[in-house]
Amino acid sequence: MAWRQILFFNRRLISAPSNSSVPTGFASFSSKSNPYIVKVGIPEFLNGVGKGVETHVEKLESEIGDFSKLLLTRTLKLKKLGIPCKHRKLILKYTHKYRLGLWRPRAEPVKA
């Protein structure tokens, strides 16, 4: 019985005329976007992560240099640079999320 209802509902959605501008059966999303930083570098990235990781900005900029290289850096390289375990985990966690497109550092609100 439940399968019949699911199939009937799906057929009704597919066969519905698409004359309206809003598709039926879909949630409407807000067009207001969150403020994101346009250019992401090592300092912006580490400040976005927070939790004390931003103290390693100078070290990572001098040794790694580029943000794209930071995204490919492994834990052993970070360990050799003397970054503590908790901070290494955070950096690697957020670089993975950034590569997948699940997270980006937020823009700082401008203070007047």
Automatic annotation (TrEMBL):
UniProt-listed InterPro entries: SAM_Ribosomal_mS41
Domain Small ribosomal subunit protein mS41 SAM: residue ranges: 42-101
Cross-referenced SMART domains: IGR
PANTHER family with a match to the protein in the record: IGR MOTIF PROTEIN (PTHR34955)
Protein name: Uncharacterized protein LOC107778518
Species in which this protein is naturally found: Nicotiana tabacum (Common tobacco)
